[in-house]
Structures are given as structure tokens and as C-alpha cells.
Write a structure and sequence with these properties.
By secondary structure, the chain is α/β, with parallel strands linked by helices. Among the domains are: 56 residues, no CATH class; 195 residues, no CATH class. Helices cover 58% and strands 7% of the residues. The protein contains 22 helices and 12 strands. Strands 3-8-7-1-9-10 form a 6-stranded mixed sheet, sandwiched between helices. A two-stranded antiparallel sheet has the order 2-6. A two-stranded antiparallel sheet has the order 4-5. A hairpin with a 4-residue loop joins strand 7 and strand 8. The longest helix has 52 residues. The radius of gyration is 30 Å and the shape is globular. It starts with a helix and ends with a helix. 29% of the residues are buried.
């Protein structure tokens, strides 16, 4: 009970839990008997033993997603993985703290030794120093867009980077001992490459992907494989803050084969895991590692039950969206007097324009005075927008809001002075066109709207082309989703079927007596190491068989729930999997009969 309570309701006191048990009629006086320290140690040991049983006896892989396991190879092949950082799961410095020994070690969370080795390898070609990558894309600035970070120096562990698939199952994780940097994402990226994923989702992929490509060229043997067979993916929500050329090149729903991948799966995971913040900040290093590893495995095991519903809901949503985007695309094409055959050429024009823009920015290192002033105005725009957002979302008191408004008024004076400088430098090519043939210089109103005439995204024809191609791409991705959902539900059912068949075969081996009337042991080396008597060996085999039968029943229940959703899939027959639900369970009684007969023989 405490195992589930501590993970589902974080922050619950162990002492109060013991007091609650003692309040029941059957547990009167237990709170005085239970030793809190021993209870804590015993609960950790019990959870770890259950983890070993799930891993070694039941063969569960809780660090994977059944819907992402290939039917052909039996290996994980997720469509996308999204590594992202969570700064709430921090850990504070504690004086005279014992290091302790972690139960799970690097079961899911990457060890600090491996993280250190990756940082040292990167430092050979890109030494840590100043932030060599700009933290700005378009009119937005991203805190995670850094190679080096000196934030949160007073914390022992700043947070954690988790990489989850499109279904929200966590595949790997990495602790952050400094602010979120590209090196932490790189460690998760290395693990993701072993899972054969097609898309790597990242909130600042426009800056991270060139960083990885540079490492791949300089350290080909160690990092050259990271970009092979994998594409960068920018989520639609975070992509709205990026520049126009970044959206064209990295928008995930503009990638062929991405289907209905949202790219915000890690945010959904963090909405649950952030509740552990009050617990992890006071833990030891080993205790935090064990708790978060156990929480990740527990989260993945709970996800397994709802995967069929999740996959099917995406299928139904995609079918609805296909009809919506078809009507919208017809309307946009008729408005422009175009046909669907013209869309590939428009898409190619946008791509070439974005590529040429990036190429010209890389070549022209020396900027003119006009370009410097334009960049300063864009920086002011970000700061101005950020302050208004803080008033609406962060500032809780009138005094706080008044302080921010005072800063805004001072900033407005600088902005208006900079606009005067810009208009003095601006020629007719940089003037905004308003009200027919009348031209006006850039004003403060234009600034507040973010309408900067030197940006390609403010051109009317460009905006219309972008809107048209964006609608077309959304239509194509939603048309791909039914096929992707069919593949995922098929892989999920196939994985359950294979697991049930495997356990039945293992139970059959355990139930076959050999010449000496001893059960055949699956893990013979483990039994020999235990040096158990012959009777205990038989009991050990019977225990394994009982655990496997319990796992078979659990898998059959999950399979039975999943088969209810097959009515939404045309090419999947329930008969291929219903046979797994009709297996006779008389073998379980046979185990008990064998146990009873052995006991009678021993008594005789």
C-alpha cells in the first residue's frame, strides 16, 4: 500500500501513514511498534525486490513502450523521442550528508560518470567557455538554448532531463548538475539513437541540430551516427515562438512520416512528475536516484494499461481533423485561384527562401549599422513583451505590478529613441506600407504589434503562402495518423501475444520433471549459486511458475481491454489474439497439486 501511496500522492509522511494504519481496528498500536527508519529501509528493499522479480522472472521491460516495439525485430523503434529538462525536480545541498549506495544505479537515469565522459569528449573540439550559441531565435529567447550554463550554482542537482516517446513512456533520463545545456540533451540523444527513433523532438532544435552536426564531423566515430536516419523535430506549440525560417525548416508537422506527433509529450509527463518536487529537494543523491527511477518505472507500467485508448483516440481525432483541413484547404486554394498541384512548387519556394536566408546570415559576419539597430529593436521587443507577460501571469501583488510598469515606462523611452534612429537610417525599401499608396515610417504601434518590415514574415504574399502550405501539411500529417495508429495498436497486441506465449513456454519447461523428479530450472546458474537442497529447488521452480501464471493473467486482462478497441480498425482480426485469452488455467492447479504431493512425500 505504501508503495502506491508514495508514488501517487507524493509528499505523504511515512510516520502519518503508520499512524493511519494504527487508527484502523486491525492496526491498533502499530504506530508505537513500527520503527520509522526500519520501515523506510524495508519499503525500499521491498520495492527493489519486486522490481527484480518483474525484470528477471516476469521478463518485463518497464523502460520501454509496447506500442513502439517492432513486430519484425522485437526491438524498440519509436517514431519520436522528446528529451526535455525539468528544473522542479531539484536537490539541495546538505551538510554532512552520507553518499549512500543507490539500489537502481543507472537502470534508467544515466550515471554522472557517463555524463562526465561525454562532456570531456565534447570539450576536446568545443571547450566550455562563453556561450558560443546564440540564445535568441526570432523575437524569442530560450533559456535552454545554451552550451554552458552557470545558473543554480547553489543546488546540488538542478533538475532532470527525460526522454519520452509519443505515448508518454519514459525511455531514459539524465540528471542536471547545472542549468539545462546542449550537453545534457546530447547524453539523452545518444541513448535515443540506440532505440532507432526517427524524429528527435527538441524545443530549440534549430540551434541544437547544427551543434550535433558539428560534433558528428569533428568526432565522427563517437557522434557521427546521431544524425543518420534521424531528423530534428520542432513542436508546433514551441515553434510559434521561433523565426519564420526556423518554422519552415524544422516544423515537425512539415516532416513526412511524422503523422500526428505533437512534440509536447514531455510536458505532459512533467505535469505529473513536478508534483515530486517537495520530496526530491530534501533527499540524498542515492535516495533521489532510487525514488525517481522507481517513479519512472511505475509511470510506464501505468501507461501500459491506457495505451490502446490513447492510440485509438488519436486515430479518431485525426479522422475528424482530415475533414476539417480538407474544407479549409479547398477554401484557401479557391481564394488564391490555385490548385493542389501548385502546392509542391510553393513549398519548394518557401524552403529555398529559408535556406538562402540562413546561408546569407552565416556568410555576412560584419553587419551594417542599420542591421545592428534592427537587432536592438527586436531585443527590446522581446523584453517589452516579456514584461507584459510577467504582469499578467507572475506578478501577484499591486506593488510588484507597479514595479514592472515603472520598468516598462523607462524601456519605452529607450524604444522611442531607437525608433527615431532607425527611421533616420531607413531608406524607402524599409518603410512600412499602410493605407494604399501612402507610406509611413515605423511607429511605436508597429513595434508593439511586432510588425518589423525587414522580416520576410511580414510580406503579405509570404504570409499567405505560409498559411496555405501549413494547412496542406497538417492535412497530410493527419492523413498519415490512421496508418500510424494501426501500426502502433498492432505492435502493442503483438507484444502482448509474444509475452503470453513466452511465459506459457517457460511454465511448460518448469513443470516438466527430469530423471531425478526435479523440475527443470530456467535460471540454473542462479539456483546453483544458492546451493539449495533438492526440495527447496522444487519449491523455487514452483514459485517461479506461480509468478509467471500471475503475469499471464495480468497480460490477458490488458489484452482483453485492448481488443475492445479493434472495432475502430478494419484490417485487424480479434480472432488472432482471442486464443490467448482462452488458455486453460489448469496448470496453476497442477502446481498446487505437485506441491501438495511433494509435501505428503516429505511427511511420509
Amino acid at each position: 500500500m505504501w508503495h502506491h501511496l508514495s508514488l501517487l500522492t507524493p509528499g505523504t509522511s511515512e510516520r502519518q501513514f503508520a499512524a493511519t494504519i494504527s487508527s484502523t481496528p486491525d492496526g491498533v498500536g502499530l504506530s508505537e511498534i513500527i520503527n520509522s527508519l526500519m520501515f523506510k529501509r524495508a519499503s525500499k528493499a521491498c520495492s527493489y525486490v519486486h522490481h527484480l522479480i518483474d525484470k528477471r522472472v516476469k521478463g518485463l521491460r518497464k523502460d520501454l513502450c509496447r506500442a513502439c516495439i517492432s513486430k519484425l525485430t522485437g526491438e524498440p523503434e519509436p517514431l519520436s523521442l522528446h528529451p526535455d529538462g525539468n528544473h522542479k525536480l531539484c536537490r539541495r545541498h546538505r551538510e554532512n550528508q552520507k553518499k549512500g549506495q543507490s539500489w537502481y544505479e543507472d537502470e534508467v537515469i544515466t550515471s554522472q560518470a557517463e555524463l562526465k565522459s561525454v562532456k570531456e569528449a565534447v570539450a576536446t573540439v568545443r571547450p566550455q567557455g562563453k556561450n558560443t550559441i546564440g540564445s535568441k531565435c526570432g523575437n524569442a529567447e530560450f533559456v535552454a538554448m545554451r552550451e554552458v550554463s552557470s545558473r543554480y550554482k547553489n543546488l546540488a542537482t538542478v533538475g532532470i532531463v527525460m526522454a519520452s516517446c509519443g505515448h508518454g513512456c519514459i525511455f531514459t533520463a539524465c540528471d542536471m548538475c547545472e542549468g539545462e545545456t546542449f550537453r545534457h540533451t546530447l547524453v539523452a540523444h545518444i541513448k535515443c539513437s540506440k532505440f532507432n527513433c526517427k524524429f528527435l523532438v527538441n524545443d530549440v532544435i534549430c540551434k541544437y541540430w547544427p551543434f550535433v552536426e558539428f560534433l558528428g564531423k569533428e568526432l565522427r566515430e563517437q557522434f557521427g551516427h546521431l544524425t543518420n536516419g534521424m531528423q530534428g523535430f520542432l513542436s508546433r506549440l514551441h515553434g510559434q515562438c521561433h523565426s519564420w525560417y526556423c518554422q519552415i525548416l524544422f516544423f515537425g508537422h512539415w516532416k513526412v512520416g511524422a503523422a500526428g506527433t505533437l512534440g509536447e509529450e514531455s510536458e505532459q509527463v512533467f505535469s505529473f512528475f513536478s508534483r515530486y518536487a517537495n520530496v526530491t529537494k530534501v533527499m540524498s543523491e542515492a535516495g533521489r536516484n532510487d525514488f525517481l527511477t522507481l517513479a519512472i518505472l511505475y509511470w510506464n507500467s501505468r501507461k501500459e494499461k491506457i495505451l490502446p485508448r490513447l492510440v485509438t483516440s488519436r486515430l479518431l481525432i485525426a479522422v475528424h481533423r482530415v475533414h476539417f483541413y480538407q474544407k479549409r484547404l479547398v477554401y484557401l486554394l479557391a481564394k488564391r485561384g490555385l490548385t493542389e498541384a501548385d502546392l509542391p512548387d510553393i513549398h519548394l519556394q518557401l524552403y529555398n527562401k529559408a535556406f538562402e536566408y540562413i546561408k546569407s546570415n552565416r556568410e555576412d559576419k560584419k553587419k551594417t549599422k542599420l542591421e545592428i539597430v534592427q537587432n536592438e529593436i527586436e531585443t527590446f521587443y522581446y523584453e517589452h513583451s516579456n514584461m507584459h507577460d510577467r504582469i499578467a501571469s507572475v506578478a501577484a501583488t499591486c506593488k510588484w505590478k507597479a514595479h514592472i510598469r515603472n520598468k516598462i515606462s523607462k524601456l519605452n523611452v529607450k524604444i522611442k529613441a531607437k525608433l527615431v534612429t532607425l527611421n533616420a537610417l531607413t531608406e524607402e525599401d524599409w518603410i512600412t506600407k499602410i493605407n494604399g499608396d501612402v507610406y509611413h515610417p515605423l511607429t511605436f504601434q508597429h513595434f508593439t504589434e511586432g510588425a518589423f518590415p525587414w522580416e520576410e514574415s511580414n510580406d503579405a504574399s509570404f504570409r499567405e503562402n505560409f498559411k496555405l502550405i501549413d494547412c496542406w501539411m497538417l492535412l497530410k500529417r493527419n492523413e498519415e495518423q490512421p496508418g500510424q495508429s494501426m501500426k502502433e495498436i498492432s505492435q502493442f497486441l503483438h507484444s502482448l501475444k509474444k509475452s503470453i506465449e513466452f511465459h506459457h513456454a517457460e511454465v511448460g519447461n518448469l513443470m516438466q520433471p527430469d530423471v531425478t523428479d526435479n523440475f527443470v530450472v530456467q535460471e540454473q546458474e542462479l539456483v546453483e549459486d544458492l546451493l539449495l537442497p533438492q526440495t527447496d529447488k522444487m519449491l523455487f521452480n514452483q514459485a517461479q511458475a506461480s509468478m509467471k501464471f500471475a503475469e499471464i493473467r495480468r497480460l490477458q486482462m490488458v489484452l482483453n481491454d485492448a481488443l475492445r478497441y479493434l472495432k475502430y480498425y478494419q484490417h485487424l482480426e480479434p480472432g488472432d489474439y482471442e486464443s490467448m485469452l482462452n488458455e486453460e488455467e489448469s496448470d496453476g492447479d497442477e502446481i498446487n497439486e505437485c506441491h501438495d504431493s511433494d509435501s505428503n512425500d516429505n511427511e511420509a
